[in-house]
Amino acid sequence: MTEQTLHKVRRADVCAVAIADCFRGDGEILANPIGNLPVLGGRLARAVHEPQLMMTDGEAYLTGDVPPLGTAPEVIEGWNPFRRMFDVVWGGRRHVMMGASQIDRYGNQNIAAIGSDPDKPVRQLIGFRGAPGNTINNTTSYWIPNHSTRVFVEKVDLVCGIGYDRAAELGEVARFHNLRHVITNLAVLDFETPDHRMRLRSVHPGVTVEDVVANTGFELVIPDQVPTTRTPTDEEMAVIERLDPAGLRYREVKD
């Protein structure tokens, strides 16, 4: 009996692997996943198939190892304070995974405020943060733990991270714009269509295409055949257990 059959694979484990696959092929760049499951997926990628990825401890150090969530690294490769991070951002050698309070069919993202009037928002969120610079200069993916019509909307209330339609309007200014994947608790999505509209790439085990459509507030591009998101290998499952022994991933995705 394998390790994977001994451990019942849950949807959070599938999400961790899907996030890790976002960084596949990146090579020697800075992986900058934000949040518990993105960090777990980024560290999984480095441990299993992308050993050249640079990782941070979430503060001011580049790490030389892949410690469990919530623990300090044992190996420090470099100092990377906030001001130096901008050199990495402007240079484009970075793949950031952000969240989204709202996202539309072209990948325009909102994390700043909810409501039609930005001067008097219905809900004040975290602000623009680094979203404009991230999406202009760096490969960007998104992690959305609750796939719903409140998040996947026809039009975002305020654009923070720019999508493909706005990038096209900017022309040469946005030549490094690259939205890769959107990972949610239901599916993997991408923008690999002629007009860069969001496409359903795969559905997680136990999820149907109809489930995803019902929880999306705009029309997705849906291929004739939609595969199931892959589950972790035995090796990956062992690494996931080592990196998240407390099961923090299950607090984010409870299925």
TrEMBL record:
InterPro entries: CoA_trans_fam_I, NagB/RpiA_transferase-like
UniProt keyword list: Transferase
PANTHER family: ACETATE COA-TRANSFERASE YDIF, CHOLESTEROL RING-CLEAVING HYDROLASE IPDB SUBUNIT
Entry GO MF terms: CoA-transferase activity
Highest taxon listed in the record's lineage: Bacteria
Gene3D superfamilies to which the protein is assigned, alphabetical: Glutaconate Coenzyme A-transferase
Record's keyword annotation contains Chloroplast: no
Name of this chain's protein: Coenzyme A transferase
Lineage of source species: Bacteria, Bacillati, Actinomycetota, Actinomycetes, Streptosporangiales
Family membership noted in the UniProt record: Belongs to the 3-oxoacid CoA-transferase subunit B family.
Organism: Thermomonospora curvata (strain ATCC 19995 / DSM 43183 / JCM 3096 / KCTC 9072 / NBRC 15933 / NCIMB 10081 / Henssen B9)
Keyword check for Nucleotide-binding: no
